[in-house]
Amino acid sequence: MALPSMASAPRRRPLPASLVWGAGIFAFVLFIAVAGPFLAPFDYDQMNILKRMQAPSAVHWFGTDEFGRDVFSRVLYGARLSIAMGIGATMISLAIGVPLGLIAGYYRGWPEEAIMRGVDVLISIPPIMLGLLILAVTTPSVWKSALAVGVIYVPIMVRLTRSVCLEVMGEEFVEAAKARGERGWYILFSEILPNAWPPIIVETALRVTFAIMLGAALSFLGLGVQPPASDWGLMIAEARPFIHQAPWIAVAPGIALVITVIAINLLGDGLREILDPRMKRDRL
Amino acid sequence: MSEAILDVKNLTVAYEGGGRSSRALNDISFRIERGKVLGIVGESGSGKSTAAMAVLGLLPGGAKPSGQVLFKGQDIYAKSPEERRALRGREISIVFQDPFTSLNPSIQVGRQIAEPLILHKGMEEKAALQEAENLLREVGITDPARTAKAYPHQLSGGMKQRALIATALACDPELMILDEPTTALDVTIEAQILDLLEALRVKRNLSMMFISHNLGVIARLADEVCVLYAGDVVEYGPKETVLGPGHRHPYTKGLLASLPKLTDRRDRLFPIPGRLPDLSQTIPGCIFEARCPFACKGCGQPQPLQAVGADHVSRCWRSLELADVPWRADDAEGGVAAHSTREHQPGGEMLLEARDVVKRFTVVSGLPALKFDASGGGFPLRYEPVSLRAVDRVTLSIRQGETVGLVGESGCGKSTFGRCLIRLIEPQGGEVLLRGEDILSASPGRHRALMQEAQIIFQNPDSSLNPRKTVREILARPIRLFGIAEGAEVDRKVDELLDMVRLSPRYASRYPHQMSGGEKQRVGIARALASKPKFIVCDEAVSALDVSVQASILNLLADLRDELNVAYLFISHDLSVISHIADRICVMYRGGIVELGPTERILQPPYHPYTEALLSAVPFIEKGARQRERIRLAGSVTGSTEQIVGCRFQDRCPRKLGGICETVTPPARSSAEGHEILCHIPLEELSGYESVLEPLERRA
Fold first, then answer.
1. I need a surface site. Which of A88, B126, B173, B418 has the fewest CB within 10 A?
2. Is Membrane found in the keyword set (chain B) (predicted)?
3. How many CB atoms lie within 10 A of CB B453?
């Protein structure tokens, strides 16, 4: 790389620590999700009634559950479904919610009324009910429950994007673009959206967590992941009756979930920092 | 010497952060005697506000103060935080810059004023609220009982600032710190507030520390002036000397030369080149050396403050030697050469004609607009939306290469009108012809093509550039959009544009946050120029900038106008700026034009009573010139929802004749070609008024 020609040129700054840690841990979680089945010492559905609810030991690192299945193996297997659920659902809400929010914020008038009233209707239905509604009419599957959770979170994304959009619209550079006769989509996606990302990214990181939990709730109701398949949310839900006798059954997937959530949040923070040039402190 | 209420000795404040420390204030000393006003001036970044915060003991966490701040002989930094807190609001109070955000929007005004009374004086709530009303009356609010019960959003900017002053006065403080108290206000309101402060000061024998970047405002109120530059006191002395002909430091000279002046209209201003030095570096010699035209060998030495007169110090070893040397050599000629303003070019081809432009904003619609009226016959429910007439049948024409200034208080519709001309706001009626072609009825495609010829420069350099784009991306977009260049040619055009606004090509790779306000404004201008327009709306284009930056941007705009023959509609609330750059001035009030004419006609009688009032309100520092008569407008602009009958200005006119002003639309009176005054007062009488500006005697 050529040396900067002057001292005041933007320097390359070290990546923010939150990004490095977040990305590192998340990469590890993804690795587990992909390689889990190959690393697991036991099969996720291999029952052994004689070894029910054993405490963690050298053979069963995280103990065994009420059917004598190896909790460690189930956590490794479960990563795949949980992550797919969380990220898939969030991406769906992002893909639907952000454009709708931008349109509502930018065009105002009847498109805004239509979108926002639609959102009001969605938000007035309790999330579980909405999930039930979507899943009850079709046969349960992981992808449908991801879709259901995604749709449930659309209103939040629409509202957030719209409010950020309204804020950015007041800026003079948007007016400058209009004064050039730019088309609506250019203003939306090139002038407004890049400035709307920071709060959306933070919200997205949070949503992934909630999506995993809501997905688990749907699974618990029998509408998402079907037993005996393993999913962290489902594992926690199923371990609830045994929380006093064998806390490890719930704690192990719980810790896995917490680690994933922390990683995603750190990643979100770090991304926001490097994506937003204003937060780089290389002011002259 | 009388007793000092505040004595600051060798105050140094450094901000620590990110592993480096930068000096905000460097060993500054000043004193304020009882009943006196000290004015502190300087550009942004000079440490003015840090000085205010240091005196209050309210510096942010990372700041390290050293030195002494003696309030009535006691060092406030020797006190405990608890004792300091007791001092604030009770004996030292502060009024901040922005009245729009300084009041809590969800608490009634009266309660906010009563708060310090309850807190510091232990008054009963009822008595405190009563006292709040008295205070509101004292700061000139006519209906204190109602105002006390109002919420901040129900008050105008001027009233809010009065309420804030009332809060600051509540505990009868001995020292009041005013941090740019009038910067966010209109000139007319500013004049009202300054009058109020002057009266309060006499009545209460109040001492004030008055911070402003506006030299005119400082000149109105201060007894002594302290000029700050990059955290150093560079000049300090009595107002008459520092802001008068007796000033000695080159920086003060530069500040004064940067100021556009109403009575001294010259072609170009003389700004201070460069920008503030990096405060994290130690500068061995004079801190102003890099920007000083008088810099020479000896300036590399540390500069102590030198006595240059009675109570007058200057941080420049050549102070006395340079006493009579003006800022720039060409400034010396003064006299005729400097007075020759750009020749008016009425011969230019007609470029833009706006006819009867109307813009209404709906303020009440939907359910609240349903009116129930059972008294008359017919259906009792009626739908009556209320709309505000922001622009009410305005007609204006602009010739090629001409600069038309548009002036008026905020809320008069000037920005809305400017935006209507380039169709950023869609007017409801009238037509806007650009070279004979109506912009308003143009098809979308044609409209886009017309936009290439009509552009806009915005007020706020922080908001007018997309923070996510580099300067190159910002400038390349219009070039590609309008098909001016393609491929590698675009980069060359970008460099050309940067050169045009006097920025070096290396700025192309910067992001907006890496530039100063003046540089950002230059990029904003370059973006407007990218499409090679023939007409540019400058909407308060220099209002947010420091004096010296403002001067260089004004010069740039004037240069570009002469080079490219573009026409400007120059919108500003500042008459000095407008009169400096405009060929013709258009004075607007409540959505309509009240006076229109060549600049020199506008500045001298006959003028419209509103123009007269605006001129009276401008704070001056010009030598020799003074305002003969102070005309003050009460209240502020109120939007009009009804069709205006009679004169627009009759609601606040100090020269109102009577009934005729309320019922009959005033005739256009013309004193010379192209000069029109809409007023019922006959021209002879208008001409007979004394001039607000005493014309400067020509220095031969």
1. B126
2. no
3. 21
